[in-house]
UniProtKB/TrEMBL annotation:
<feature type="transmembrane region" description="Helical">
    <location>
        <begin position="307"/>
        <end position="324"/>
    </location>
</feature>
<keyword id="KW-0812">Transmembrane</keyword>
<feature type="transmembrane region" description="Helical">
    <location>
        <begin position="229"/>
        <end position="248"/>
    </location>
</feature>
<dbReference type="InterPro" id="IPR001996">
    <property type="entry name" value="PTS_IIB_1"/>
</dbReference>
<keyword id="KW-1003">Cell membrane</keyword>
<keyword id="KW-0808">Transferase</keyword>
<feature type="active site" description="Phosphocysteine intermediate; for EIIB activity">
    <location>
        <position position="27"/>
    </location>
</feature>
<dbReference type="InterPro" id="IPR013013">
    <property type="entry name" value="PTS_EIIC_1"/>
</dbReference>
<feature type="transmembrane region" description="Helical">
    <location>
        <begin position="344"/>
        <end position="365"/>
    </location>
</feature>
<dbReference type="GO" id="GO:0005886">
    <property type="term" value="C:plasma membrane"/>
</dbReference>
<dbReference type="Pfam" id="PF00367">
    <property type="entry name" value="PTS_EIIB"/>
</dbReference>
<feature type="transmembrane region" description="Helical">
    <location>
        <begin position="401"/>
        <end position="422"/>
    </location>
</feature>
<protein>
    <submittedName>
        <fullName>PTS maltose transporter subunit IIBC</fullName>
    </submittedName>
</protein>
<feature type="transmembrane region" description="Helical">
    <location>
        <begin position="442"/>
        <end position="465"/>
    </location>
</feature>
<dbReference type="InterPro" id="IPR036878">
    <property type="entry name" value="Glu_permease_IIB"/>
</dbReference>
<keyword id="KW-0418">Kinase</keyword>
<feature type="domain" description="PTS EIIB type-1">
    <location>
        <begin position="5"/>
        <end position="87"/>
    </location>
</feature>
Amino acid sequence: MGKYQQDAKLLLEYVGGKENIVAVSHCVTRMRFVLNDPAKADVAKIETLKSAKGTFTQAGQFQVIIGNTVQEFYNDFTAVSGLEGVSKEAVKSAAKQNQTTAQRIMSALAEIFAPLIPAIITGGLILGFRNCIDSLYLFENGTKTLCDISQFWAGIDSFLWLIGEAVFHMLPVGICWSVTKKMGTTQILGIVLGLTLVSGQLLNAYSVATTAAADIPYWDFGFFKVNMIGYQAQVIPAILAAFTLVYLEKFFRKICPAVVSMIFVPFCSLLLSVIAAHFVLGPIGWKIGSVISSVVYAGISGSFRVVFGAIFGFVYAPLVITGLHHMSNAIDMQLIADFGGTMLWPMIALSNIAQGSAVLGVIYLQRKNAPAQEVNIPACISCYLGVTEPAIFGVNLKLNFPFLCGMIGSAVAGAFCVATSTTANAIGVGGLPGILSIQPQYMLTFAISMVIAIVIPFVLTVIMGKKKQVS
């Protein structure tokens, strides 16, 4: 008999029985269910199980927090239920039946950017390091950088740009690949499409603003001309082009006879999508991206930027609950492309810290409650490292007031962060490690913002918890 067999039997009953389960899988800490009727899941009973640390529903999936022993629990659950587990991708696919159109769009954006995050984090750290050695004037009475006084570090600085350029300038290649991977079409075609958006034959996107209209190269087709402009670091043009390629490939695969599909499907799909990308979608996507980033940048840098920062800091955690926070990835990348950095991502990292600090307050309040600490401590650690769901759903929302305390702390930290123009090189490094993605000249102000995001939620949570006699 497995260690969790009894709890597994009860969980099966409480989620509505075998017949209510469409698919089941698990991640690092959670059981993930897609249910025919989510209303049949008895949350109150599930949370009485000793093995269950909390529940929440997100992206059409009913998730039960188990903790680090989730693999053992999952094995016992599949044994007692007779169900075969499926991959997380299969669960995500099945979960679409429970998602609204907006949730599906947000989920798609999240799945596009998720495979790119490791590269973006790496690129951000490299840019941050390069800024430290080539932009901080720390030597010879503040007149020279490390690169100015050392040929070795100047060489390192130049060499590291090889990676930085590959990550950020060539981002459309990664986006086009990721879209085709997610949609199950030919990935190499996505890569080739992305390469056509950043080809060296085109005028670099970063040079467009400083190039006179008469000097912009173009393709001359006799009766019309098309500007030869690259889309380095552009997000929306790449997404539009990639989805065009995906649907063209699916269309041609349906209508082409199998005997010639190997020739005509890739040829027609790629050719038409490249034409659409450079003739129509690229210019439109560029304009849309520029408008979005300009509006957000105006909010962050304008006269009411402190208000903007406070509002964004306050509402970001609730956006996580709805899944709408995934939209911020695309906006962040567009801000980086247009303005050389993003002031949005630092506030996201601060929201992570604030929610984790609210959990830290709960840890203090429940310091004598050993069963509660089994949930609280791992949730706090993961939140400080940028993964907020266990903290939000497993602790803060269950007690309600810590969630609000975290939002208030995030709002104050966000207002200070924006007031000081704190800017990140890249996205992806969340929570306390988020300081590694901050541009060097703003690391001190971000550190102060982190202190605010730690102290205010912790103090408010302890004060309110004592009034409510939480222990």
